[in-house]
Amino acid sequence: MSELSPESAAAPSAAAIDYVERALLAARDLIESTVTRHRRELTQDSWAGTALGKVPLAEVVDTLIDGAERTVSVILSGGEEQTRAVCAALGRRVKGGRRGVAVRLLCMERAAAAGGIRTLARTDPRCEARVCDGGLPEALMVDGQIVYVTNGQPDPVRGGRQASLVEDPATVRALELMFAGAWGNAVALAEYPRLGGRLCPESARRILECLRTGHTDEVAARDMQVSLRTYRRYVAEIMRGLGANSRFQAGVRAVEMGLLSGGH
């Protein structure tokens, strides 16, 4: 039986080093998680006794997103204050190298136009953005445990926004299911056409329907009560937004993206 040299006997094995490193990393993650949770609880305690709607929106959003450990899901209605606060808070996490949280941004059409949303989706590989039709309240969901909900309207009694912080497990679960349903029917931001200019989404859908059903430009322009020249400019705008080379291709892509139903 061979004997170990003094050098090899003194040197720790690679397995031992790997185990120690993993243990230290786990300890670091635990400490960071505990500190983050403690900071969030301290801040939430400081809101006690104050109407939540009176707390600056940026402060609430930053606190909750900074304290996230696994997931952040946001419903963005398009309000500038909310969009700015969410983009700033998530941007700080990315700049700080904290990319371990999965982020889902469910945007109404107004919010989808914000440059900050597209920047986040490009720079953070764990951030995904989709676009939905609307009808949902502004909400911020963190780790499946806490939801901040606001409808953006003034509180007639207390002043500030009408807002609430939901922590009841059953209610949080119901809100998450609502989010999941809307998320499943939403369109990926990268595939969502940016129809700029003066053309609203409803007008775009009407024009796409005219193209699919074979209306002549003259008839379609008359139905929409615009000049023939304006109608044709809108058609060209839609085709650019959809990345289509023909009117037929524009109709096909509109169906694929859910802008038109597939029926005839």
Report the major sheet: 7 strands, mixed
Spans of at least 5 consecutive residues whose pLDDT stays below 50 are none
Assembly category: single chain
- Find the count of extended strands (DSSP E, 2+ residues): 7
Radius of gyration: 25 Å
Indicate the topology.
Blueprint (H helix, E strand, L loop, with lengths): L5 H5 L3 H34 L9 H10 L4 E6 L3 H16 L6 E6 L1 H4 L2 H9 L3 E5 L6 E5 L3 E9 L6 E6 L2 H16 L2 E2 L12 H13 L3 H8 L3 H15 L4 H10 L8
Would you kindly provide a written description of the structure presented here, covering whatever features stand out?
- With 264 residues, the protein is an alpha/beta fold.
- It has 11 helices and 7 strands.
- It has a 7-stranded mixed sheet with strand order 6-5-4-1-2-3-7, sandwiched between helices.
- Strand 1, helix 4 and strand 2 form a beta-alpha-beta unit.
- Helix 3 runs parallel beside helix 4 and helix 8 packs across helix 11.
- The mean pLDDT is 76.
Features:
264 residues; alpha/beta; 7-stranded mixed sheet; 11 helices; 7 strands
Briefly summarize what is shown:
The protein has 264 residues and is of the alpha/beta class. The protein contains eleven helices and seven strands.
